[in-house]
Amino acid sequence: MPVRLPDRIARPLIKGAKRPMEGSRSSKAASVLDLPVEHGDFAALEGHKHVLLVTYKRDGGAVPTPVWFARDGERLYVWTEVEAFKAKRVRRDPRALLAPCSPIGAPLGPPIAARGRVLEAAAERDHAAQVIRRRWGIGRRLFERLSRPLTEVHYLEFVPAGEDAGPGA
């Protein structure tokens, strides 16, 4: 079982590790909002390694974020740090868009309307972790070894939104 560092030590380490990546997000990420939204399954994401997850702030503003993902049938799983705003936004407003993207967030296709939730039950979290581990193999295991002692994660689950859900799910 990994040793968990106290938050007063872990937070500065995590924030410092992210700084080099902050400026690497594609300037084209927001252009996903100009594309027509599709309603249906996640088949268009097959073969892609990253999705641009669009969640919504309290004021309705869209926030596109590139993330790793794994599919299990018609469910798509993402993991994020417990304190990440995307988890807080999904908890407050389940509407989301998912679009295939490059590792830095340049859209590679139209967004798909979805509805998300933060997984609370241990069995659901374990299932999501297993699906992600299976999809990402050794890369995920290395990530877990290096980061799990530093931070806890939330697992987010997304399902396709129906036609009647409106823009952004």
UniProtKB/TrEMBL annotation:
Keyword DNA repair: no
GO molecular function, one term: oxidoreductase activity, acting on the CH-CH group of donors
Pfam family name, one: PNPOx_N
Organism: Patulibacter medicamentivorans
Superkingdom per UniProt: Bacteria
Keyword Cytoplasm: no
Keywords carried by this UniProt record: Oxidoreductase
Protein name: Pyridoxamine 5'-phosphate oxidase N-terminal domain-containing protein
One GO CC term, this protein: cytosol
Domain Pyridoxamine 5'-phosphate oxidase N-terminal span(s) in chain numbering: 44-137
